[in-house]
Amino acid sequence: MQLLPGLLLTLLACLGSVVAQASHAELVRLAASNGGVIKLTPTLFNALTAPNREWSAAIQLTALSPQFRCSPCTEFNPSFKAVAKAWSKVPAEQRDQHFFATLDFLEGQDIFKRLGLSSAPVLQFYPALEGPHVKPKSQRLEFSYDFNRHGFAADGLAHDLSSHTPVPIPFTPPFNWQPWFFGATFLLLSAIAGRFAWMYLGEIIMNRWLWAVLTVVLSLVMTSGYMFVQIRGMPYSQRGSMIAGGFQNQYGIETNLVAALYGLLGSAYLALILLVPRIPSPTRQRASIYLWTGIVFVLFSILLSFFRIKNGGYPFKLLL
Amino acid sequence: MTVLKLPTFSPSTLTNAASLLRILALAAIAGAAISSRLFAVVNFESIIHEFDPWFNYRATRVLASQGFTEFWNWFDPTAWYPLGRVVGGTIYPGLMATSGVIYNILHALHLPVDIRNVCVLLAPGFSGLTAWATYMLTKELKDESAGLLAAIFIGIAPGYISRSVAGSYDNEAIAIFLLMITFYIWIRALKDGSVLYGTLAAVFYYYMVAAWGGYAFITNMIPLHAFVLLLMGRFSHRLYSAYSAWYAVGTLASMQVPFVGFQPVQTSEHMAALGVFGLLQLIAFVEIVRSYVASKQFQVMLRWFLVASGIAGGLAIVGLTITKTIAPWTGRFYSLWDTGYAKKYIPIIASVSEHQPTAWPAFFMDLHMLIFLFPAGVILCFKELREEHVFVIIYAVMASYFAGVMVRLMLTLTPVVCMAAAIALSSLLDTYLSVEEPARPDSNGVDETSAPGADVPAEVTVSKKKKKDVAAAAAAAAAHSAATTATKAKTKPSATYGIFGLDTRLVVIVNAIFMLVMFVLHCTWVTSSAYSSPSVVLASRRPDGSQNIIDDFREAYYWLRQNTPQDAVVMSWWDYGYQIAGMADRPTLVDNNTWNNTHIATVGKAMSSSEEVSYPILRKHDVDYILIIFGGLIGYSGDDINKFLWMVRIAQGVWPDEIKEPNYFTPRGEYKVDDQASEAMKNSLMYKMSYYRFNELFSGSPAFDRVRNQQLPREGPKLDYIEEAFTSENWIVRIYEVKKEDPLGRDLKTANAFDGGKKRKPSKPTSRRRALTA
């Protein structure tokens, strides 16, 4: 009699493991049928992240349908797929201990709600909790992939995940033929075109004023904080305000405004130096001198007032 | 025809007067440049500023007291404890050698000057020389009057002052002078095709290599200039002699600096110079052969030979790079081109504030009106387009890009902006100060009287009054040239174009002078308010407007110096390493010479882990004291909690499994220190040390952090493994002592709990705490 409960327990345990086994086999089949990525439903999600799982899983929680307009999601999806595909090349023994899966917001709103997610994409890693391959407790952490640190690209993802998967992911970034191909074609074409166009375009390429304009535009753009906007990824303008607060801060539109101001001021001086002395009529010359000087004065006042917005303590001002 | 009659002098009088005026103007400019950099001394005292200068100062003291050989062999066991640092082979010794020489000369003249004052005043002194070098270079581009304008611009432009105020004893202090003088001599060498000047350029280049890591700018600018001249079809034997002399001598000389060693032939940064050198040899060879063999077929063959060997040379460099014989670009250099590189791979570089990109207000702040005269000047360079103008154009493009990428490189942009702006402004003054008036197109010359004669003395007094200003010097020079042309013009008909009337001239000149006055006011304001703070001593304003000096740093460093054993190891974040070594004279784990990322990450890990994890690390590194900077009480924003994320990031780079940046944020991704702060944040050693006993100051009401504007948890952190040793007056510097292992073998947490449980026990170790409250 005393044997019975024990027997029952063993049976149950067997049954449990059979269920687990079945669902594991199911997961392997699902993964294989979809290029290494399991398309999840809420029930499958629960099965994959069951507390007695003997496998680890990397789950992409995303919103790919166009109505959500989630551009990072569409940007990240190909990288995720590429890494999952690379994983499917691992020998079956190790491969089946780790799964890549994806859950779309349309399919599993409840899961999103349960995890308290308000943004997408999120890549959640679930380590194995039972079975022979389980890691020591200190390394058994659920974590979400850090996009800021490793980026959206596939190699960063593969590199970061490799330290958590049973074996490192054999991901090699596909060789990018495109720039080489286009580069070579471009070089060839431009060499041919250059050879034939030299007689017509030679004058233009050798024209110093073309180069002068290029040089000046480049330095104007650079001295108006273009690289700051590029490196920091600043928006062009935000919520209708064109000027970012703070001395070490600016929006994209400020680059244009300031470069234009500098350019106009510089050309006003150039006009005074180069153009005005060549005006043959004294009256017209006098008028243009007053005009250009006035322009310098007004533009400089605008520039100063602009600077005062950025730097509140600046004590000097003109007109404005 | 002239608008007003100038008194006539003999040509020799004019020349003499002009050159005397020039010398006086240059002297006045040097005086202005030096004195405007003394705000820091006047406002505070003669003190070394910031961080790196403290190391330079310490090294200079070694050099001055022990001689050059000892300095060269100096191994510093107190830095990077326990590794130590070979100082002689890991620094650019030019700066220390310069002050050492000056110090010795002064002492030989029996002027007993303190080495500290030599160091403090070195940068202002060299700024005077920079002004002179800029004058010489701009003179080559246009004329003396433009040179004088450029000299005063560079003398007082905040972009240069920011790195050369008195006390800012850093490599840049002499490097900008060396940059300008090398460029000037290079231009002279190129103009004359002189091997002597080429060699002289190499000598100054060597000095530059010995003084500043930014020498790579010259290493690439001169070859780029030569290369562009080649592309423009301006190969000449002058170019060949100048470049070959500069490259051969300069490269050999630069390899004598131990820190540089074989880099000039082994790294990609220097390959452009080598490549252009090879190309010039090939072209010169082909030119010589061609001058002897005239046949057409042979010339075609030569051209193909040139192309083939050029391609072969290029491929050889690429091949050597691939096989790693030539080292690829170093991270610091590479991150200038690939701007995302540093953030991803070398967070330690990205973490430095002077390596951030530059927003436009910084350009305007540092250069004011020069920034919009600059493009005008570049256009005027295109108008002339001699060899030296090509140089300025390339310099302008490169420097404006670099300055946009890194705030720090604003320093290299400033000289070229000053030169170009001076060219533009001096062209303007030339045009409008000339008394020449063109012939009127309509022959009824009645209109001439409309130019009011009353304005004549007014205009003269305006220019007389400004005699000490550059504008006056420029005006005098222009007037002089105008007068000489005027004497010539007697025989010739009047110029075909120019300016009519006096009022027109007056409007433009007054506007220009007004702009110059604005510029001077701006420079003075920026220099005195923004760039003259030593950052070791802070100043704030009391509500009644009087100045309040916050001297916590020195207070704490002197406490360390006087209250701890000489060999007590102090751990702090790397920013403060040089200051601790310089002012407290104690060994440090890491300092501002960030050569060992792992060691810095170790400190980062100790700061960002919990006490239990940190304690073994601290003990293994023999740390006796931990020094942190805390600004929460008085609102000093440059404190360690604000730098904390960089510690986490750098530690994460080495121990990605143990330290994870997201753990230090709240679940909503915010960086908080209040009740919602994450567990990792609250348990980190840095957090605990910063806020330990902080709420006692607020006597019951919740403590408030004035930097982050957050209320702290009611319950302050508890410390088991370390104890507070010292806190400075305004709480900016806090020093903790690391406890030794418990004599009974318990872990310190248990021991502390045991002690805490028997509070009334008389043997409670409170002596140190009492010292604090006293």
UniProtKB/TrEMBL annotation, chain A:
Superkingdom of the source species: Eukaryota
Membrane topology: Multi-pass membrane protein
Location of this chain's protein in the cell: Endoplasmic reticulum membrane
SUPFAM superfamilies xrefs: Thioredoxin-like
GO cellular component, one term: oligosaccharyltransferase complex
Residue stretches spanning the membrane: 177-197, 209-229, 257-277, 289-309
Gene Ontology molecular functions: transferase activity
UniProt KW keywords: Endoplasmic reticulum, Membrane, Signal, Transferase, Transmembrane, Transmembrane helix
InterPro entries xrefs: OligosaccharylTrfase_OST3/OST6, Thioredoxin-like_sf
Signal sequence interval, chain numbering: 1-20
Residue ranges that the Swiss-Prot or TrEMBL entry lists as coiled coil: none
Gene Ontology annotations of biological process type: protein N-linked glycosylation via asparagine
Free-text function comment from the UniProt entry: Subunit of the oligosaccharyl transferase (OST) complex that catalyzes the initial transfer of a defined glycan (Glc(3)Man(9)GlcNAc(2) in eukaryotes) from the lipid carrier dolichol-pyrophosphate to an asparagine residue within an Asn-X-Ser/Thr consensus motif in nascent polypeptide chains, the first step in protein N-glycosylation. N-glycosylation occurs cotranslationally and the complex associates with the Sec61 complex at the channel-forming translocon complex that mediates protein translocation across the endoplasmic reticulum (ER). All subunits are required for a maximal enzyme activity.
PANTHER family: DOLICHYL-DIPHOSPHOOLIGOSACCHARIDE--PROTEIN GLYCOSYLTRANSFERASE-RELATED, GH11935P
Family the UniProt entry places it in: Belongs to the OST3/OST6 family.
The name this protein goes by in its record: Oligosaccharyl transferase subunit OST3/OST6 family
Organism encoding this protein: Calocera viscosa (strain TUFC12733)
Automatic annotation (TrEMBL), chain B:
Catalytic activity: a di-trans,poly-cis-dolichyl diphosphooligosaccharide + L-asparaginyl-[protein] = N(4)-(oligosaccharide-(1->4)-N-acetyl-beta-D-glucosaminyl-(1->4)-N-acetyl-beta-D-glucosaminyl)-L-asparaginyl-[protein] + a di-trans,poly-cis-dolichyl diphosphate + H(+)
UniProt cofactor(s): Mn(2+); Mg(2+)
Subcellular location(s) per record: Endoplasmic reticulum membrane
Record's keyword annotation contains Ion transport: no
A Gene Ontology biological process term: post-translational protein modification
EC number: 2.4.99.18
Topology relative to the membrane: Multi-pass membrane protein
Record-annotated membrane-spanning stretches: 20-40, 86-106, 118-138, 144-161, 173-189, 239-259, 271-289, 301-322, 362-382, 389-407, 413-433, 506-527
Domain STT3/PglB/AglB core: 567-618
Disordered: region residues: 439-460, 747-774
Coiled coil (UniProt feature): none
One Pfam short name: STT3-PglB_core
Compositionally skewed regions (Basic residues) per UniProt: 758-774
Pathway given in the UniProt record: Protein modification; protein glycosylation
Function (record text): Catalytic subunit of the oligosaccharyl transferase (OST) complex that catalyzes the initial transfer of a defined glycan (Glc(3)Man(9)GlcNAc(2) in eukaryotes) from the lipid carrier dolichol-pyrophosphate to an asparagine residue within an Asn-X-Ser/Thr consensus motif in nascent polypeptide chains, the first step in protein N-glycosylation. N-glycosylation occurs cotranslationally and the complex associates with the Sec61 complex at the channel-forming translocon complex that mediates protein translocation across the endoplasmic reticulum (ER).
Protein name (record): Dolichyl-diphosphooligosaccharide--protein glycosyltransferase subunit STT3
Organism whose genome encodes this protein: Calocera viscosa (strain TUFC12733)
